[in-house]
Amino acid sequence: MAVLWQQPSSLLRCQALALLHFICLLFPPSGALSWDNNASPSPLEGFKLVKGNFSRTFLRVGYHKITEIPLGARNVNIHETVKSRNYLALQTQTGVSIVNGNWVIDRPGVFEGVGTQLTYRRPNEIRSRKGESITAPGPLTEDLHVYLIYQQPGPSVYYEYNVPLENTQPTPGPDASSNILGKCTCPHAKHTHTFWCPVSKSSLI
């Protein structure tokens, strides 16, 4: 009779171990879920994690600088913390538009610039509650300028990236005044995505 009970007991132990292994896969020790795309990457040896948040109550409609990400940065992650009708935009240090420049809204996809691939995501505007995001593995071959195209009050954008420890000088944050990307041909030119060029004498690129 004891032999008959040993086999089910061994089977139960195997099932328990398998269940424990499955739980460990779902909930790793770091606390980040395996499917969480917004989870921060593991810290790189010899690198420092830089992060920040851009938030304002009201801004003038147009392009506003969020931050400058320096040359050599890796694991770039920029995303809206609150879904909105605003847009993210990128420009190189030399003034070349990468994403959503020149008053044109690009489709989501993969873009090439500053020596890396930049993945621009804009979730479904109706079904999704997530905002826009831009990620890049790096390393960047030149400084990357990050902008917000302001259309809706209360924007909130989180950004983070890794920089080499020998390059830990503070990077410029958002300017007090608006920095406009692109060109506007008239004082009140309306774009198909319902944002406006507010004034004709803005500092346009």
TrEMBL record:
User: What domain of life does the UniProt record list for this protein's source?
Assistant: Eukaryota
Location in or out of the cell: Secreted
Q: Which GO terms describe its molecular function?
A: metalloendopeptidase activity
Where would I find the ADAMTS/ADAMTS-like Spacer domain in this sequence?
50-164
Instruction: Give a GO biological-process term.
Output: extracellular matrix organization
Q: Name one Pfam family in it.
A: ADAMTS_spacer1
Where would one find the signal peptide in this protein? 1-32
GO cellular component terms, A-Z: extracellular matrix; extracellular region
**InterPro entries assigned:** ADAMTS_ADAMTS-like, ADAMTS_spacer1
Q: Keywords in alphabetical order, please.
A: Secreted, Signal
Name of the protein this chain belongs to? ADAMTS/ADAMTS-like Spacer 1 domain-containing protein
Instruction: Kindly list the organism's lineage.
Output: Eukaryota, Metazoa, Chordata, Craniata, Vertebrata
